[in-house]
Amino acid sequence: MKSLKVIDEFRVEAKEALFTKQQAVAITLRLLQAELAAAEDAQDRETLSKALQNITFSYLDATATPIDEMLDQVGVARFTSEQIITAIQNVIFDVK
Length: 96
Description:
Number of domains: 1
Number of strands: 2
Mean pLDDT: 94
């Protein structure tokens, strides 16, 4: 996979953005779907399709504490665009 153009654009456009848990999950899935739609060859499409099937919330946040639950319940925006990008890169690496 040469580059992730949609992810690269997201990195620029959402540089300082913070996301709630729900927003982070939604944007992660939408970014993977957009990359899949823009994939230029069969191998990239296969990798991105596997990534979409295998992505879980643990790629974004591996902790599950009472404080995490409290923050999520009140809708605290605490996920950065870089955390989302890293989660996508990690799931792609894991399925390759």
